[in-house]
Amino acid sequence: MTTQGIGNGAKRAKEPVLVVIQLSGGLDFMNTLIPYTSGVIYDARPTVSVPAEQTLPIDDRLAWHPAAKALKDLYDAGNVAVVQGIGYENSSRSHFRAMDIWHTCEPLRIATEGWLAKTVREIDPHGENPLTAVSFGRGLPRALAAPGVTATSVSNLDQFGLMTKVEQAQERAHDLEIFKRMYTPGIGTGIVMDYLSQTGRDVLKGADMLATVPGEYASTVEYAANPIAQSLRDVARVHTAGLGARVFYTQHGGYDYHSHEPLMHPRLLKELTEAISDFLADLRAHDAADEVTILAFTEFGRRIRDNGSGTDHGSGGGAYIIGDRVAGGLYAEYPSIDPKDWLYGEDLRHTIDFRGIYGTVLEQWLGVDPAAIVGGTFEQIRPYRSTLLAS
Fold it and tell me: What is the model's pTM?
């Protein structure tokens, strides 16, 4: 097994790393991987559909949106596994509830532990490294929250390193307040306050260890100035610093396009896909891509018919597993676009449960038993050519 440097100058075996990208708002899967030869799509979506001749075909049925060229290039290179029709039974159309379900793997009840927090507990059961999980963005994602589990949260690595201790403490307090406001309505003040009292400001204590990381990083890759590109740059900097981080969390917002989708969707896709491409190029230049898998997900898809300006909340979306060890291609089944098969007469039906995809990454990539984390046994896919796990 190959090695990489760690912060104290020693060497350690490479360990599998998971980078999660949350696409907040509900990415329009049908307008990302487009069934471009279907007349049904153009009849149902006269406003938001992309003319077939402008799409980027991958076969005689499906094509990438032209703004996703950077992702198509990675797909053509065999580095992108597209999970088609991901979702769950009785999909919620509420942003808060849907994201809560994706974060906790509990569609039927309100849960108090995030799936990645439970994963961190398996990877680092004694909480020895506060950087086992690192989130970039404001507030701590529910997926990383569980009593007794530490996850480090930093909004911006450069800005944090320049802050005084007082300013850092203020930012931490602000992030915890965001967490409290986000989750109190769903799970109640008591549980939220119990969580904060048990983990306290220790959920962010690893940020102190990150202050020197920017000064130790050099790269020829020029990331764009948008938030997702900068967050992935921060992931690259922490990962290549060799501080033992195993789970990274990032977020890219703006996908709730009930209106102006023809303008918003291409901009967001370009930001996202080019950021991912730059991130992988950066990791490769640092000999640090081999151990990284990216999982990009969104809380639901959009409805089949457009509304004259955009699309409304739906189901049957898509997810993406990306990396140098990925066996690229299409996985699960693209939901039927025949009108007789539409769910509720307006939605795509999901064809694979999201908990099976989590299980895939947990078991096949991280080497963690997924059953207790995702709440059962669900169909998995086989998206890897090879992994770092012992055979």
Answer: 0.89
